[in-house]
Write a structure and sequence with these properties.
The chain is of the alpha+beta class. It has a domain at 4-88 and 222-227: Gcn5-related N-acetyltransferase (GNAT) (Aminopeptidase), CATH 3.40.630. 23% of the residues lie in helices and 34% in strands. The chain has helices at residues 4-9, 11-17, 49-56, 112-122, 176-190, 206-211; strands at 24-27, 30-33, 40-42, 62-67, 79-85, 87-92, 105-106, 137-142, 145-155, 159-167, 194-200, 214-219, 221-227. Strands 7-8-9-10-11-6-12 form a seven-stranded mixed β-sheet. Strand 9 and strand 10 (159-167) form a beta hairpin. The longest helix is centred in the C-terminal third of the chain and has 15 residues, at 176-190. The protein is globular.
Length: 229
């Protein structure tokens, strides 16, 4: 088995090699998620990304290459780079004691649409409707509606990523995200895996993540591409 430290250098690749293998498609040694589930791609050899991405883009209008420090090669007659998101990876060091006062619900399939709508309201771009099948999602309800969630995204036999940390703008500053992150982290620890998360550099949420025991470990960048029609 590949050690955790090596997996974290290329989390998309190893997720598709293990827990999420059933969601994977591969072109010439470059791995992608099925575009209905997630549009992340991964590689070790950037010389193969031009041909592979030209094949994958036939199935979707946009996608992301996720890389620590390599630069993908693309066919700029077919694909345009929209932007490079300078991201970072954080790994749990030690979870502090945090009081859970809200009723946190494991979200079942009946909430797929509500989860999708809330994420696209707050953080559009990353999430597809079937991203929901990548792991467990948890939520807090107020006034009869889903107002705050966290989910699990990439995962292997050794780690699970905390993702989709979003709260409706009308319900922020109530500690919902904090409690959901702690709850999701505890659920990951229960199955003896390491909790990780990814965010963009400079995100105002980073100090919260650090207070909850996560530490910055490495760059992890998202190259965002779109098909040229």
């Amino acid at each position: 088995m590949v050690k955790l430290e090596e997996q974290l250098k290329n989390p998309v690749w190893y997720s598709l090699n293990e827990t999420h293998k059933k969601f994977g498609v591969e072109y010439d040694g470059v791995r992608f998620y099925d575009q209905e589930v997630c549009t992340f791609g991964s590689f070790f050899d950037e010389s193969k990304t031009e041909k592979a991405s030209s094949q994958y883009i036939k199935t979707t209008d946009s996608f992301f290459f996720v890389s620590e420090n390599q630069t993908p090669i693309i066919d700029d007659a077919k694909i345009v780079l929209e932007r490079k998101i300078d991201g970072c990876q954080m790994v749990l060091k030690q979870l502090p004691e945090v009081s859970i006062t809200e009723d946190i619900v494991l979200l079942t399939n009946e909430y797929i649409d509500e989860v999708y709508d809330l994420i696209w309201l707050v953080m559009p771009g990353y999430y597809r409707r079937r991203t929901f099948v990548m792991g467990n999602y948890y939520g807090i309800f107020k006034d009869g509606k889903l107002v705050s969630i966290t989910g699990q995204r990439m995962q292997t036999n050794l780690f699970i990523e905390v993702s989709a940390v979003v709260t409706h703008p009308n319900y922020t500053k109530r500690g919902f995200a904090k409690q959901l992150i702690v709850h999701t982290t505890k659920e990951i620890l229960k199955v003896n895996k390491t909790p990780i998360l990814h965010t963009n550099k400079g995100n105002l949420a980073i100090p919260l993540y650090q207070k909850l025991g996560y530490e910055l470990t490495r760059d992890m960048n998202w190259w965002t591409y779109r098909r040229i029609d």
